[in-house]
Amino acid sequence: MTEVTASKRDWSLFFAGALIFISGLVVLFWPGLSLVVITQIAGILLLVGGIFDIIWYVRLRNTALTTGWALVNAICSIILGLMFLLHPIVTASVIPFLAGVFVAAYGIMAVVAAFSMRGRGSGWGLMLVNGIVSILCGFMFAFMPESFAIFLGIFLMMRGATMCVYGLTSPGTVDLM
Hints:
Elements: E1 2-4, H1 11-29, H2 35-60, H3 68-86, H4 88-117, H5 124-143, H6 148-169, E2 174-176
């Protein structure tokens, strides 16, 4: 057995997560922001988060307990972020429904990834909670669009917190066969 040790944390993932978490707080405390502004903020942060998720996946795919679902999640975040940025006015009118579909799909992928990680590491519980909260937020986006800002804030806070935890814990010691 070979032991690989990463001596430093993944601060880029942590700080991207912190920014997403803070944006969730902003959306929760100031829900009166126009949907176009929320769309642009969420678009930037989802794009940045997706890019950092891809970097995290590429850097740690051979040493950490990552799955292909992590890469799919990153790609979905980038696509959603680009849609928000390239078409803010159109997206603002349909954002609750569109975001609901993407966030629920993300949640389903997170739940599947959590169960696939279950026997291989300790991060599966956080991934499972993240997935369940995301599914619930996704359904609330679609079925209660008037409460969109509240559920967007909750989703962004959960997503950011998850990224922060993974940024602080994922590069630990891993045994390789």
